[in-house]
Specification:
The complex is a heterodimer of chains A (114) and B (113).
Chain A lengths: L3 E4 L2 E5 L4 E7 L7 E6 L6 E6 L5 E4 L2 E6 L4 E6 L8 E7 L3 H4 L3 E2 L3 E6 L1
Parallel strand pairs in A: 2-11
Antiparallel strand pairs in A: 1-3, 3-8, 4-5, 4-9, 6-7, 7-8, 9-10, 9-11
Chain B lengths: L4 E3 L2 E4 L5 E6 L6 E8 L3 E9 L2 E5 L6 E5 L5 E5 L8 E8 L8 E2 L3 E5 L1
Parallel strand pairs in B: 2-11
Antiparallel strand pairs in B: 1-3, 3-8, 4-5, 4-9, 5-6, 7-8, 9-10, 9-11
The chains are: A mainly beta (114), B mainly beta (113).
C-alpha cells in the first residue's frame, strides 16, 4: 500500500513530441506528489509537484495531471527536446512533516531523439 | 544560493569496513534526509534528521546510522559494510518539517569490494 508504481520503464520520443509518464498509488493518505528529473551522475532535481486538491498543474513545458478517483497522476512533457533526456521519478508522501519520507516510483528513462 | 553538498563524491571500501558520508544542507534548511539509490531498486528512504534529532528511519538495519550537527550538516555512517551496500547515497534538505519539498545533493557513490 506504500508503493508508487511508475510506467513505462523506458520511453523513446522524437524531438517535438509529447512524453507521457504515468504513476499509480494505493494509499489515499498520500497528499503530495512531486516529480524529479535526474541526469546521469547527478542528484534528482525537483521539476514540479501537485497536491490532491488540484487536477492539473503546468510549469512551462511540464504538466502534471492528477486523477484522485483513479489514484493516478502523470507527467506530460510537451515539445520534448534532446536536453530532456534523463530519468524521471514520481514520488508521493503522507504529510512530510510527520514522516519525512518520499516514496518513489521505479523511474522512467526518457530518450528524446533529435 | 548554494545547493545541497555531499562529500566525498566517490568512496571505495572493502567488506566489513565502515563508511562515513557527509552532507551540508541548503542554508536555512533544518531538515536533512538520506536516501539509498541502488541499481534497480529506485530511491529508498533511509533516515530523517531535524534539529539534531533522528525523526524517522526507513527499513534498513541498525548498522546504518547517522547524526545531525548543530550547524544542521549531517553524517551517515554505515558499519560492517556488505557488498549490497554499494549504491548512490543521496542527501536532501528542506526548510523546517512543515514543508514537503526536498532538494537533493549530487550524491556519494559508495562501492564495496
Amino acid at each position: 500500500q506504500q508503493q508508487v508504481k511508475q510506467s513505462p520503464q523506458s520511453l523513446i520520443v522524437q524531438k517535438g513530441g509529447i512524453s507521457i509518464i504515468n504513476c499509480a498509488y494505493e494509499n489515499t493518505a498520500f497528499d503530495y506528489f512531486p516529480w524529479y528529473q535526474q541526469f546521469p551522475g547527478k542528484g534528482p532535481a525537483l521539476l514540479i509537484a501537485i497536491r490532491p486538491d488540484v487536477s492539473e498543474k503546468k510549469e512551462g513545458r511540464f504538466t502534471i495531471s492528477f486523477n484522485k478517483s483513479a489514484k493516478q497522476f502523470s507527467l506530460h512533457i510537451m515539445d520534448s527536446q534532446p536536453g530532456d533526456s534523463a530519468t524521471y521519478f514520481c514520488a508521493a508522501s503522507i504529510g512530510s512533516s510527520n514522516t519525512g519520507k518520499l516514496i518513489f516510483g521505479q523511474g522512467t528513462t526518457l530518450q528524446v531523439k533529435p | 544560493e548554494a545547493g545541497v553538498t555531499q562529500s566525498p563524491t566517490h568512496l571505495i571500501k572493502t567488506r566489513g569496513q565502515q563508511a562515513t558520508l557527509r552532507c551540508s544542507p541548503i542554508s536555512g534548511h533544518t531538515s536533512v534526509y538520506w536516501y539509498q539509490q541502488a541499481l534497480g531498486l529506485g530511491l529508498q528512504f533511509l533516515l530523517w534528521y531535524d534539529e539534531g534529532e533522528e525523526r524517522n528511519r526507513g527499513n534498513f538495519p541498525p548498522r546504518f546510522s547517522g547524526r545531525q550537527f548543530p550547524n544542521y550538516s549531517s553524517e551517515l555512517n554505515v558499519n560492517a559494510l556488505e557488498l549490497e551496500d554499494s549504491a548512490l547515497y543521496l542527501c536532501a534538505s528542506s526548510l523546517a518539517p512543515s514543508t514537503d519539498t526536498q532538494y537533493f545533493g549530487p550524491g556519494t557513490r559508495l562501492t564495496v569490494l
